[in-house]
Amino acid sequence: MILAIACVPAQSAQAAPVAFPKKAGKLAITSCPETAISSGGIPRTREYLQGVVKCLDKSWAAYFKRTRWTFRKPVVLYFEEPQSTVCGVAWPEHAAAFYCTERGTLVFPLTGRWIEDRTDLFPFKVAAHEYGHHLQSLIGVRGAYEARVRAEPARQDELKRRYELQADCLAGVFLGSSWGSLDRTGRDWEALVDATRASGDDGDDYRSHGKGATRVYWLKRGYRALSPAACDTWSAPTAKVS
């Protein structure tokens, strides 16, 4: 299983006093054509991710102009290989990519199964998911989540899933807003759905991200709605965040 994670503690249900406002509307349709992830046998993973992040910056900055929150671009770090430490902590084991919450930093390894030689949209979705964690920090969701975990430590796994599934949904919102520019087909979408389902933590002892079917549900919800307000995992019933 390939994980994309945020380096944070964990959290609980029906909790977040902060939500993306309905009045801010949908994420605007944007143009985000993909660059080649490799060319002539040479990996171009950095260029690929830089293009996706540039689109994410532009798209979410425009959305934030319609809200009361201040937008700040994340810091982005790229590594050819995993390091022993990053952002002042140990490099997370089995992580595809991750977000360092205390430093507002996206971390992308340029190698590994999550991105090397892939022809599907999984790297695109992972980048959008980690960017979702940055958005959660900007609007106060992360702070509310961490406070809830401290108050209800017995629910931390469930709360962590709500946190991660919201990022899946926000990734879906961005995918939906940029889909028309991706030169992809319905078959590509189904391949992404399959990859997302395979990234679920079904059967794991520590269930931090959600079952495959649950991750697919929230990805599709964001994709269809195009609205961050649809990504309220915090008030969703327990069955929807399993």
Please specify the SSE layout and strand pairing.
Elements: E1 3-7, E2 38-39, E3 42-43, H1 45-64, E4 75-79, E5 85-86, E6 89-90, E7 95-100, E8 105-109, H2 122-139, H3 141-151, H4 156-178, H5 186-198, H6 212-225
What's the β-strand tally? Answer: 8
Element-by-element helix/strand order:
EEEHEEEEEHHHHH
Tertiary shape: globular
Computed over alpha carbons, the radius of gyration is 17 Å
Mean pLDDT: 92
The number of helical runs is 6
Low-confidence stretches: 8-15
**How much helical structure, as a percent, in the residues?**
40-55%
Beta fraction of the residues? Answer: 5-15%
Strand order of the largest sheet: 1-7-8-4
N-to-C span: 17 Å
Structural commentary:
The strands form 3 sheets. A 4-stranded mixed β-sheet has the order 1-7-8-4, with helices on one face. Strands 2-3 form a two-stranded antiparallel sheet. Strands 5-6 form a two-stranded antiparallel ribbon. The longest helix has 23 residues, at 156-178. β5 (85-86) and β6 form a beta hairpin. It is globular and about 55 Å long. It has 242 residues and is an alpha/beta fold. It has helices spanning 45-64, 122-139, 141-151, 156-178, 186-198, 212-225; strands at 3-7, 38-39, 42-43, 75-79, 85-86, 89-90, 95-100, 105-109. Residues 8-15 have low confidence and may be disordered.
